[in-house]
Amino acid sequence: MKQNFYCIFLFICSWACTPSNNSKIEIVIDKSLEAELKAGRLLLIYSTDSTTEPRFGISDNVSTNQVFGMDFEDFEAGKPILFDSRSFGYPVERISELKEGTYYVQAFIQKHETFNRADGHTINLPMDQGEGRQWARAPKNIYSKPIAVNWKKEQNLRLTIENIIPEIKQPEDTDYIKHIKIKSEKLSEFWGRDMYLGANILLPEGFDENPSQYYPLMIFHGHFPSDFSGFRTIPPDPDLGEDDYSDRFGIYGYAKLEQQEAYDFYQKWISPDFQRFIIIEVQHANPYYDDSYAVNSANLGPYGDAITYELIPHIEEQFRGIGEGWSRFLYGGSTGGWEALAVQVFYPDEYNGCFAACPDPIDFRAYTSINLYEDQNAYYQEGEFRKTLRPAHRNYLGHVSATVEDMNHKELAIGGNKSRSGDQFDIWQAVYSPAGPDGYPKPIWDKYSGEIDSEVANYWKENYDLRYIMERDWASLGPKLEGKINIFCGDMDNFYLNNAVYLTEEFLEETENPYYDGTVSYGDRAEHCWNGDPTLPNYISRLRYNTIYLDAIGDRLMKTAPAGFNQYNWTLTKN
User: Fold this and answer.
1) What DSSP state is assigned to residue 485?
2) What predicted TM-score, i.e. pTM, was given to this entire model?
3) Which CATH topology does 177-360+467-571 take?
């Protein structure tokens, strides 16, 4: 009883001691933008940088801009939206706690659309508009021009939203690169409206001159590709100087290096002794993220089936793919690494090998720095007298720059508590969770406090924990996966993804009847996203996904392709 009384006292004190805020913040919508506005997420963003719009400066870094967010529905034309000063913010949680000073302030609205799903739920979500579900760049979203404000406590503010993000110009086809978009019947049925899948396709040299030749298919999984990347038919731009700097890799001249690598790939692609195959990059942006994770999901719908049984057969029929499981290979890094392994596991007969680099957590006992099955809280470890925040991002020296709480609170401010931020933890939740009673993904943990829901964790385990699923079903899966699993990760991955790879490797090395007969390897002190070449630094090897696994693929084809397959371009010796 004393403990309960103490908890109630703390709750009342916490509520009562929350600083009040009497600021009146009005957001006026220009009349020209009112017609299509019904519901959405209103963001109020503060920055100290006058050179870049505040909407582009929200991040996990310590230098992030400040954002507060609130949902609204049933917008009434002609009336301003009154911003709720109690709305949650990141990194400062309440407007009343924001220190006084000069800021550049911007209002931004991410529009929501209504979906009447086949499961009976009606929900509001932001729809991809061809940009890859990037809220700050999504066409049709609206925003105000940043203004300088000398911010003081209990200050009134009035912002006018009068700008709209324009439609995106779609890339054009070339001799080598084609772009397709198809309506998915499976996804359209689930979402209750027309839904589409797309792909950027690189055709082999001699495609038009050899109409009777059919080709293996390489599926490069990853984040939304606006156009086919890493392929350039002209030399690097001579105007690109060496002063171009990459913050990520800490080197100068990186843009020119990227162009040189793309041009070098083109030179290999057209050479007479280079392997002939088709490469596709899948476009499967959706209302929750820039891609679907390429699996079936209670919240996203049957993307796995749609990609494997609708999109890929369509591409193979139109562009002369061989069209059989032995001729298809999967690869990718990070999100794409998880997808490559997951698709191979869930569709073992439809693909002949996966190369999963720096995959998102493939064992949920190491869900970044969290054990979902044993930990009580995702944000911290707690003892009798202290608690320690869980790290989420580090460099190769182990220096931590963001915690799990930081990243989730950022998402909470941007997207609210219904997985609508379009960011990393929210999409994992949207893909892996069952649908909740309200139709939105059931939370794996409380987004504010971090308290883990063990029932949801068990659902994740049974349906998406790739190591657990392989171990559980090895008697039936093993014979179909033998020789097909290859995983690569840096041992200082920035997001601790190597920890799940270690656990998965332990299982794979113990497999019998059959032994998995694949590869798991690690890059010494390599950060995200090491993909398997110990002779090259990350900043170069990440540009060579389309060639780095060809020797292994060639070996696999020699072992598994039927006798009638022409191996010339793979072995350099005629059959």
Assistant:
1) E
2) 0.93
3) Rossmann fold (3.40.50)
